[in-house]
Structure prediction request, 816 residues.
Amino acid sequence: MGENPISIHVLGICSALAITTKIDTAVVMTIAVVAVLSISNVVISFLRNNIPNKVRIIIQMSVIASLVIIADQVLKAYMYDMSKLLGVFLGLIITNCIVLGRAEAYAMQNSPSKALLDGMGNGLGYGSILIAVAFFRELFGFGSIYGAQVIANQIYLGGYENNGLMILSPGAFFILGLIVWAHRAYTGTSDKH
Amino acid sequence: MRSDTYTIVFTTIVTVVLGLGLSVTADSLRERQSINEELDIKKNILSVLGFSLSSEWENDKIQSLYEQNINELIVDKTGSILGPIESSNSDKYTIYQSRENDKVTGYAIPIAGKGLWGTMYGYFAIEPDAETVKGITFYRHKETPGLGAEVDKEWFQSNFVGKKLIDTNGSLVSVEVVKGYVSSTDPKAMHKVDGISGATITGKGLTTFLKNDLQKYEPYLSKVRKLNQIESL
Amino acid sequence: MKWLLDYLLKIKPNFDEGQKLNWLYPLYEATETILFSTDAKTKSAPHIRDSIDIKRVMILVVVALIPCYVFGAINIGYQNALSFGLERTWVENLIFGAKTIIPIIVVTFVAGAFWEILFAIVRKHEISEGFLVTCALIPLTMPPSIPLWQLFIATSFGIVIGKEIFGGVGMNIFNPALTARCFIFFSYPSKISGDMVWLVGPDGYSGATALSVPASTNSADAVSLLDGITQFDYSWINLASGWIPGSIGETNKFIIFLAAVALMIMKLISWRVILGGVSGLFAMSYIGTLIAPFSDNSMLSIPPHYHLVMGSFAFGLTFMATEPVTGSHTDTGRLVYGFFVGVLTVIIRSINPAYPEGVMLAILLMNAFASLIDYFVVKVNIRKRMARYA
Prediction:
């Protein structure tokens, strides 16, 4: 956890804002990111000694882009409702700096098996934050956890209201900010300028 | 440093391999995807017409329910039925007729128009008398959570049920989303539903495009009403 | 008073470094300096170059808010009586209003004090009295019908996100009281978005606010629309004297005007921000009235002097925009900053279809731009001097 891509490097927060209104979308997104990240790391690690240095970023991008498109197509075919919810943000995994970052920083120097572990680790680290943010947003924004209503009807009748800010993108910003704050305060990390 | 030729050959090979992989996946999944899209539309039409499945919406159940009960009709400006044919002409509109045991149980029409932040898409269902509202649903919109997005909620949608589309003279008045609550003494209460507080623009937009869309189908619906009258005599 | 000072000095060693009660030092320090003057120097804005310190400034601002509270209470009672069709004296109205307001004030201060003390103890710094002003302002910006639990969350949000994460008083970018208000606005919008009146009345009782009347009708003259409303008296003089439903402290513009003058004379708030704000509002709404004949947006036809008394512009400009930390710090910058608060208020009111009132968003947006304005003012100044001495 010391090198979590979101809470330490604050990478890839674009999709973290968009798809974390509910836990189920965050879980599917996590699976997609883990899959794309591990496979792209492995593929690039296999090719690492053959990729010409001049065009390495382009090669990495095309591998990642192809994988993302395949993930998107598979989701459309087998989980249509979910792909409607994720919409354009699944495609935006391409622009997620974590994927390219790990390919460039790790897979280019390490063996496929290590790159696979690195991809899975980073993907899960990213996903754990997504799911944590989604947990709070769904709980306060909809009163449910993973689709199951946890805030009883009586509480609503007593005047409780769901928090609309949590469903809006700024809600993810605040939750994410608080998580980063708590994590950094706990680990004692801070930006050194 | 490797030679330029190597770079070009390597890039070409990678591109071709990836391209092949992509087209194979896309091609093999295309059929499933288009079925999904169709099923999604069918599911929306079935639900606005009041069909409900006790269990999950399973694909083949949706398919069979739809085939048994829904009749797709194409009508034109004058209200005559052109039969169930696909057409790109903008003067022709699709209407979904639901049937159970050879009796018409309702009509559904697609509705779409501007809300506050973007276009809202949905279906609007009418009882077989062609003047009473059977239901309304939205499947895509960008309204504000807690305000405009309340159009998805049961309380808002159920307000529409039972409202009348035409006045006593038989002309179309549609259903209006008012600001605040509909007062019970209002003589036009049959054509009005409670608004969503804080979402005036969404309500106004909905009122406008609902009326526009209904107007397109009015020639056909009025024919249905006339037929109904003749039958009841 | 001597005995109190003696007592405080006597117990002071208990809170020194290494003593058992050291962790409570912030509480001790706050008690001592709020009762007696201090010799500490300010380290960050707002800087006070006078014999008074931040505590006295804050207290004076709070005193200036008291008339708003009193009028607010009377008005709550009055609106309640009106909605039920009752006859009541102003004393009864005051008592009714006080019963509504006091829980709101208590909840705000409990929430504010809790976070302030918590952060002071964890971060081992002194308790800043800034939270007193923030907590005194928050209830005034709230509708009287606000659920107390929402208020508690909003106050916590304002203090923690609006202030503490930036490092406390003097470091914050956004006005914490407005941050709290903004949180409520976006979190629980169904009752707080400002197109329905707020008052303590019968269930289901509702009506349009002055600002939402012209917003909901197209192609009409705003003033004649307002005169046509019979449920409330939306004439200019009544809008200014505040016998209309609204947030607790913002309805009476005369009281706010007097408070503004008093605070300006004491140099506690900047007259430049006020002047800039009012001229911005006038300029933009005048432009609006020029465009109005060519548009079906009735909001544009609101004349400038109506804009001044409608909604919470007067309150926001006097007590929120003038806050010394989050506004601009240069004299020219303050004029520009205030001007744009006025301009943006009119733009958001007239053009944005979703939000009938724009003061809060205008001030928060300008908070974000305040230091940029300062930067350019300083740049221009440097260039002028270079030109002069080159």
